[in-house]
Amino acid sequence: MSDIFSEAFRTELQDIVTTSVKSAIAQTGNPQTASLDRLLDTNAVSEYLGLTKPTIEKLVQEGKLSPIEIGERSKRFRLSEINTYLETTRRVV
């Protein structure tokens, strides 16, 4: 049951983010100034996707996610890329 809740939560969260981004684009008229390419750290991506940090690292190693290296130890992920990953891996339950 928790898996169903997690999937529903992720779907609802993604819909909220998508609506917010579309609203920001409509207000600014420029997708580059909207929050679509907001950068998330590994903890935020882990929470957003409902996956553990080691799983996020595995996705990076497999080339499914591409972080931006900031300094020697810090990584950030584009929200747009995370949403693309969700769209390509979404399964209908």
Structure description:
With 93 residues, the protein is mostly helical. The protein has a single domain (2-89), classed as Multidrug-efflux Transporter Regulator, Chain: A, Domain 2. The protein is 59% helix and 11% strand. The protein is built from four helices and three strands. It has helices at residues 2-28, 42-49, 53-61, 79-89, and strands at residues 39-40, 68-70, 74-78. The chain has a three-stranded antiparallel sheet with strand order 1-3-2. A hairpin with a 3-residue loop joins strand 2 (68-70) and strand 3 (74-78). The longest helix is centred in the first third of the chain and has 27 residues, at 2-28. The radius of gyration is 14 Å and the shape is globular.
Name the descriptors:
mainly alpha; single chain; 93 residues; Multidrug-efflux Transporter Regulator, Chain: A, Domain 2; 4 helices
The count of DSSP E runs of length 2 or more, i.e. the number of strands, is 3
- Under the CATH scheme, the architecture is Orthogonal Bundle
CA(first)-CA(last) distance: 12 Å
H/E topology pattern: HEHHEEH
Q: Compute the CA-based radius of gyration.
A: 14 Å
Structural class: mainly alpha
Q: Would you state the CATH class?
A: Mainly Alpha
| DSSP helical segment count | 4
- Strand residue content: 5-15%
Which helices and strands occur, and which strands form pairs?
Blueprint: H1 2-28, E1 39-40, H2 42-49, H3 53-61, E2 68-70, E3 74-78, H4 79-89
Antiparallel strand pairs: 1-3, 2-3
